[in-house]
Amino acid sequence: MRYIGIDTPETYPRLEDYGMEAWQANRQLVEGKEVRLEKDISETDKYDRLLRYVYVDDTFVNAELVKLGLAEAKAYPPDTKYQDYGHSVDYICHQAGNGMWAK
Length: 103
Prior knowledge:
The chain is α+β, with helices and mostly antiparallel strands. It has 3 helices and 6 strands, in the order ββαβββαβα.
């Protein structure tokens, strides 16, 4: 599955800076919890991965990873329902130096 509207550092095939931190943060946010998935326009991407916004209770996981500085808001049209929100969170976290934006 691919989280809509964000780009995180990779862990495979090559470990990128903050890749493990992003993976671990996501794991903490969702593992063993009931998640709610929300579809935008597309069902899957070109790699046949399910595209969804992810929620745990009131936490919008896609945005939470951006807030932590472990993902970058990125538009992947036509799935852009929350893109303005994502970019505003991204800007604030970048300015604050959170996670991969640390100065």
